[in-house]
Every structure is written in structure tokens, then in C-alpha cells.
């Protein structure tokens, strides 16, 4: 298969999945605004690392759980939804950042990576990616790792854009009231993702 003809559709798929709103991107926007782009980068890299492991695991057999045991998918939706509601509350009630102060901590690498295993959108993305684009020829492990790696390479600028967007918003917010409105809105948008998960 021609490499460009193969990678083109994969790129389009990953751009459409990672640049559109979802739990990760809403949280990155809130983090960028509250903590700045640099302090949000571990969150960005954690998303990529967690999705890489998840996608590769799906290709190597984890996705069969969804096919054989529908209850696993239901449990994942419930757990993911409850955790999202918790995160939404944390975002909505976060105090305004105090510039020059180290108070408050954004998501770390391992927190963001672990969240992907409870993030139904990441599962749907991984299942669709591997079912649609994983080559049948060659070593299955190598193919899975290469496809997952390329997918995350495409996703990096897309999700970083949301962190940058949040950072830009943070520079315009002045005063505690503006921050309360912004954080409350971001929390509500995070909670709203639950409707798409359970819908």
C-alpha cells in the first residue's frame, strides 16, 4: 500500500477526532487558562502517552473485551462519567489563579495518562482507528505500535491548540468574577460530556 495513500486517511481521522471538543480538550482549555501553557504540557503529554498505550493494547487484543463482554463497556461509561463529574466540579470550583504563586496544580502526566482508560471517547477513537487502519500484512505488534505512534504524533498539535487557546483566554480574564464565570463554564462543559457518553 502506498504510504501517503495510507497515512492520509489516518491523519484526517485523527485530526477530526482530536481537534473537536471532548473531555480532554475542555480540560486542557481550563488548564491552559489557569496554569499557562508550559505547566499544562505534562497534561498534554499524558493524554498522548495514555492513548498510545490504550490504542496499542486495543490492537493487541484488549478491544475483544468490548465485543465479548458488553457489560465492560457499560461499566466503563459509568466509571468515566462519574470521574468526569468529579473533574467538572473541581474545575468549576477552582479559585482564580494567583499569578506568581505556585498554588494549584494542573493534571500531571500519569493522571492524564490513566484518565484515558476511563475516557470513552479515547476508547471509541482507538477501536475505530485500529479496526479501520491497522495493516493486515507484517508484524502485528510493530504495526500496532507504529499506527498508535503516528496517531499520537498527529494528535499532538491538535490538543496543544486547546491548551494554547486556554492560555490566551487566561490573559484576558481580569478579576475574580471573570475567573469564576470562566471556570464555572468550563466545569459545565466538562459535565456536559457525560450526556454524550451515556447518550
Automatic annotation (TrEMBL):
It is found in: Cell membrane. Keywords: Cell membrane, Membrane, Transmembrane, Transmembrane helix. One of its GO terms (cellular component) is plasma membrane. PANTHER family: ARGININE EXPORTER PROTEIN ARGO, ARGININE EXPORTER PROTEIN ARGO-RELATED. GO terms for biological process: cysteine export across plasma membrane. This is LysE family translocator. It holds the Pfam family LysE. The keyword Cell membrane applies. It comes from Halomonas eurihalina. The keyword Transcription regulation does not apply. One of its GO terms (molecular function) is amino acid transmembrane transporter activity. InterPro entries: LeuE-type. The chain crosses the membrane at residues 44-65, 145-169, 181-198. It is a multi-pass membrane protein. It comes from the Bacteria. Its main location: membrane.
Amino acid at each position: 500500500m502506498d504510504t501517503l495513500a495510507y497515512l492520509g486517511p489516518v491523519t484526517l481521522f485523527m485530526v477530526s477526532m482530536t481537534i473537536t471538543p471532548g473531555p480532554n480538550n475542555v480540560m486542557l482549555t481550563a488548564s491552559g487558562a489557569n496554569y499557562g501553557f508550559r505547566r499544562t504540557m505534562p497534561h498534554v503529554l499524558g493524554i498522548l502517552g495514555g492513548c498510545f498505550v490504550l490504542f496499542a493494547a486495543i490492537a493487541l487484543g484488549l478491544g475483544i473485551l468490548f465485543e465479548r463482554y458488553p457489560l465492560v463497556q457499560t461499566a466503563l461509561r459509568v466509571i468515566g462519567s462519574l470521574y468526569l463529574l468529579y473533574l467538572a466540579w473541581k474545575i468549576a470550583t477552582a479559585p482564580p489563579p494567583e499569578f506568581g504563586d505556585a498554588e494549584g496544580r494542573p493534571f500531571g502526566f500519569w493522571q492524564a495518562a490513566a484518565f484515558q482508560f476511563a475516557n470513552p471517547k479515547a476508547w471509541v477513537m482507538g477501536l475505530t482507528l485500529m479496526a479501520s487502519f491497522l495493516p493486515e500484512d507484517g508484524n502485528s505488534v510493530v504495526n500496532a505500535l507504529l499506527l498508535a505512534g503516528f496517531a499520537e504524533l498527529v494528535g499532538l498539535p491538535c490538543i496543544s491548540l486547546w491548551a494554547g487557546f486556554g492560555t490566551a483566554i487566561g490573559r484576558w480574564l481580569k478579576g475574580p468574577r471573570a475567573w469564576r464565570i470562566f471556570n464555572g463554564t468550563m466545569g459545565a462543559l466538562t459535565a456536559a460530556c457525560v450526556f454524550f457518553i451515556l447518550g
